[in-house]
Amino acid sequence: MNETKKNKIYIYDTTLRDGSQGEGVSFNGEDKVRVAQKLDDLGVDFIEGGWPGSNPKDAYFFEKMKNVSLNNAKMAAFGSTARKGVLPEKDNNLNMLLESEAPVITIFGKSWDFHVKEVLKTTLEDNLNIIEKSIAYLKSHGHEVVYDAEHFFDGAIANEEYAYKTLEAAINGGADWLVLCDTNGGRMPWDVKDHVEMVLKKFDKPVGVHCHNDSELAVANTLMAVEAGATQVQGTINGYGERCGNANLCSLIPSLEIKGHYPCLKGENLSKLVETSYYIDQLANMVPNDRAAYIGRSAFAHKGGMHVNAVKKNVKTFEHIDPEIIGNKRRILISELSGKSNLVLKAQMFGFENVDEKSDKILAIVEEVKNLENQGYSFEGADASLQVLMSRFFGTAKSFFEVNSFSVFVNSKDQQEISTQATVDIDVFNKNEQVMANGEGPIHALDSALRKALLPYYSSLKLVYLTDYKVRVFNAKEATQAKVRVLIKSCDGSRSWSTVGVSSNIVEASWIALLDSVTYCLQTPMASASEVKEN
């Protein structure tokens, strides 16, 4: 591929409309405003906010957006062509699109004769008139109009002549963009490439593409469309969307910019991609996909010892791009497959000094990690526990408190009301603290009791809270005596960290992870000496 700079590719984001149709994805009205502002900050060109005529939430969103200034993007309202037998000026859907005051209006029409007959229940000629007159009505009000040719590729393969007539009708109506849609997500890349090339030869209009991911080809199909000459790509953040989702902009944008040398975002905005992805996941109440290309936590994670050894010498050996370009970061994983290279790099990332592969300390840590992994520990997702462990071997560990004992009491009254109480007995600065606290469950009660005991001495802990708690049972054949691995994720508002504990007792496993979490928080730079109460 030619590596010279190419034509600008316009990014059309439909997360708030097509993306929100994905199973489990939901935004309220205020969330939609926040997402729009985040997308504008990323630098996309179009933000499709929803269908004003379909539900009150989208109508509310467009009303709110009338008072929100966008710096990079144009707001687009989405809807359909006029209904069969209804004049455009009398069609409620088209008029609500106009009332949204969005500068761009996107409407879809039928390109597949099968849909015209089976869904619209009208004639092929009537469908052409509906497309042309609907677009002409919107253009008469001064709007930029994007025409989404629904099921275009399926339609073109079934009846090429008619599918192209629908595009001609859109052009006659004054459409500014022709967007070819693989609505069922079943077409192959060569189908997409061939028809995009033919459309561009036949019509003097800019072409876009809208692909669904039912064959796991939405990104590939979109890239082929761009290579064939399309200059607008439609997709969603994180690939949200109906059924299997839409083309994932978090894969498309870096592929286009970095690999294809097509300008998409302004300036250094590509570095905001990971942050944008996580932010929108959070608002959508979706769990981030760790294995997502480019933006996932695992995208630049290295585990095998030979791989890490190579990365240590030159990161290009096992990384196709610099992760920082898109706002991601390199991770070195520690497991029973790890060699000394993994631990050396990890120790350096943690800030330990005088790290040497040949040192007795590194060799001892390797053996300890392997021993703990054999017991059921996993440090891949628990960097904080690994750092606490390493600090003991490197002699930098500090004793912030000593645990004498802990206990948890769960009481059920009339088999309905359950109360939980925890007691911790610890020594802090040669003072004994015996503290009791109630909780919603054993772990919450223990967490509350430990905080209650330590807060008078370490004020930084008041900012710490648990954000995730996961339990995995292994050697399940042991039934209720099986060991469990508990992974706890904590946050203090500006950073997050994960710790791990293993035991055949779920409370003890949780307690181990909880102690590591507190220890990590106190011994890292965020917990300064000034936060420690003097004797």
Keywords:
535 residues; TIM Barrel; 3-stranded antiparallel β-sheet; 17 helices; disordered C terminus
CATH topology of the largest domain: TIM Barrel
Q: How much is the average pLDDT?
A: 91
Fraction in beta strands: 15-25%
Give the biggest beta sheet: 8 strands, parallel, barrel
SS content category = alpha/beta
Shape: elongated
| Helix fraction by DSSP (H/I, runs of at least 4) | 25-40%
Could you tell me the number of beta strands? 16
Strand ordering within the main sheet: 1-2-3-4-5-6-7-8
CATH-scheme architecture of the largest domain: Alpha-Beta Barrel
CATH superfamily of the largest domain: Aldolase class I
Q: What's the structural domain tally?
A: 3
How many angstroms does the end-to-end distance come to?
A: 69 Å
Question: CATH first level of the largest domain: which class?
Answer: Alpha Beta
In DSSP terms (H or I, runs of 4 or more residues), the helix count works out at 17
Estimated radius of gyration: 29 Å
The unreliable regions are: 527-535
Description:
The protein contains 17 helices and 16 strands. It is α/β, with parallel strands linked by helices and 535 residues long. It folds into 3 domains: 10-284, TIM Barrel (Alpha-Beta Barrel); 301-370, no CATH class; 402-531, Double Stranded RNA Binding Domain (2-Layer Sandwich). The strands form 4 sheets. Strands 1-2-3-4-5-6-7-8 form an 8-stranded parallel beta barrel, surrounded by 10 helices. A 3-stranded antiparallel β-sheet has the order 11-12-13, covered by helices on one side. The protein is elongated and about 85 Å long. The termini are far apart. Mean pLDDT is 91; it is low at 527-535.
